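It is worth pausing here to work through a concrete case rather than discussing structure prediction in the abstract. The textbook approach is simple: state the sequence, then state the predicted structure, then interpret. We follow exactly that order.
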Amino acid sequence: MQSFTSIALTTLLVALTVGCGDDDVPLVIDAGSLDAGTDAGTPPVDAGEPDAGPPSPIEMARDDARMQVAEATEAFGMIPAASRESAELLAVDLTFVRLDAVIGEKSTSLIDLVGVIGEKRLIRPASLPINAIPAIVVARQLARVVRDIDDQLANAAWAASTEPLRMALRTRLTEARDSLAALRDLVWDRYREIVDSVPITTYPEDTEYEDAMVVMVPPGGIDMHAIVEGRQVTAAEANISVDCGRAVFVTVFDEERGGTQIVGREMVMLGGITVPLPAETPSSIRIAVEDSVSDGNWTQCTFQVFGHRHWRGDAIELDDGENTTLDTLTNDWRMHNAMLQGALEAIIASGGAGEREAATAVRAFIAEMSGDTGTWRGPIGALHEDDYEIHDLLFTRVIDVVGAHLETSPALTSSGVFDTVRSDLAALRMTEDTARQTLAPTHMSGL
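Step two, the predicted structure:
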């Protein structure tokens, strides 16, 4: 086993190296220059000559989704600023911010990081090949956006309005949703193609794979993600253990294969769930959790996923200093999360209508951050490069971007009731970022 502080690994963004023009001259992405905000004139990520031939299906779907999102954004912009900046449309605003980071026109968008997700040749296939890392992040984000839009259209008060500008926004968002769903399916297909490009048995095998995630489940639920293989051909299944101290509902979805349910909604308090999976292939699953008690309290849960994994190389251990730092950060995270829990539930219980809507949007964002980064707060036996890269790319390119926008949104800044919320939300993001840097190989610290 190797320590994160004693070796130099290829960084994620260097691992996202792609062929450009001459197959012998790779393009190395400058990780320090990429962001999801205004394009500062940095060199494009895919700087080589375009591939010959017509656009691929995924390129055409990306361009169609961009067009539909642009039209929805234009419809959003037609709504008076006072309404656009209110809590009423905060969730829609955050959706557009997320989409800009994931499929935006700039070369820094996630979908363009490796030449439209694997359009270029693979430099180094692995258990999760290079191009599979951004592919899985993009696919999961598109799936989240589709679920979010479905929820907004079905439940948001603005979506039921007969006011013409809101009706136009509903129409455009519906059209964008369909294009995004089509792109999501193509990216999942591309991810599967990349992962299957080399037989999985080529890579080191971990027959006792375990991933522990510690999360706070708020009212409204939480999603977690895992990549796991069935234990063996004769028992092609993984297992999930649940410890929440009280009953929760758990549903497991196959993310890659149409988002279908693998395990139907089960009530579990302390026990296990068997998850049937295809044999000898890494499957991406989504674990959706809902609290069974509607009392406004958040429930701490520990989830453990057991199964098989194939890795690029050996696991990397944390040294004593890094473990101590993570323990301190976990305590800080719990403190800020508890402060946010108290403040948000008080607003939702007794605040005005707009304040309640804004607090609910913040709560959903915290659930996302908690569910997608829960591994570092669990007992880390060993962390692997593959999973770290997903965590790093997701946080820096999406979660941090959406969180920073949320904290400065007029829906929060216009009311003093959110001052504490904004402060603790910023502290929570900073804690997450410090944990990410602590987990990183030493050469990542300067990025």
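Step three, interpretation. The chain has a mean pLDDT of 81. Residues 164-195 form the longest helix (32 residues).
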